């Protein structure tokens, strides 16, 4: 049996760690015969990378790349004293290690245009021979505590004149979305108060309320630039309303499913969320739909005064007095 290396984590059977936690384990070296060993070292790394391509007319494709290192530590587990190498008899040898993880590590992430990964790599160096290596991935999970965030009621408004050439102007749409707080956790309901005042003849065919995940990838080469991806996490669809010269008040409760928490600890990959309310309008103009976006924070630990965990998903539509 040839020389074999193995990394074993002793304080996490599933390879999941939290920022600030200690990484503890052993590197086991199995030598099938007597070997000259120069040293045995262990590196602990955390890196974020982004890559995507942009097609430009007449210039071909340009590759954008970004990279950020969050963690790098090298531990020397074995090295002969005052000698370049040492003869080690056949057998199994175990070398323990421990490393304190920084508090600022971003969570592990895998995306279409980038990732954040953490891994350990053990290297057994021998003179005049190719080094033996082995690696082991581990994950970082961040528990975003909403009690440590500044969360305030939020309100976003929209005023839009409807009707464009060749259409005849058909009125003005006033709309607003209001939330009692800007922070939520999976399992809670987002109680959005949607107010609509449609001063015109256009019919709102339906109103779609969505929780959207916003992933921002950043690149530094060949120039500083960003690429944003949006994914609909969940949504509610409300039938249309016709309210010429009238108003409506809506209470939409959108339940947050399990998703990655909001993350801004990385410069190359950031995760955010927004509540998006889209008003689909029956109009001859092909892009008449109107959208209101409200940024929200998705955490893991709810606020201590939160009373929304037991809410029921209801929809109540009432005409505004």
UniProtKB/TrEMBL annotation:
Per the record, GO CC terms? cytoplasm
Q: Which UniProt keywords apply?
A: Sensory transduction
> Where in this chain does the record put each Arrestin C-terminal-like domain?
169-303
Identify the InterPro entries for this entry. Answer: Arrestin-like_C, Arrestin-like_N, Arrestin_C-like, Arrestin_domain-protein, Ig_E-set
Question: What's one GO BP annotation on this UniProt entry?
Answer: protein transport
List, alphabetically, the SUPFAM superfamilies matched.
E set domains (SSF81296)
Superkingdom, taxonomy of origin:
Eukaryota
The record's Pfam families line, in alphabetical order, gives: Arrestin_C, Arrestin_N
- Say which family it is in: Belongs to the arrestin family.
| The protein, known as | Arrestin domain-containing protein 2
Organism, scientific name: Culex quinquefasciatus
Q: Encoded by which gene?
A: 6040488
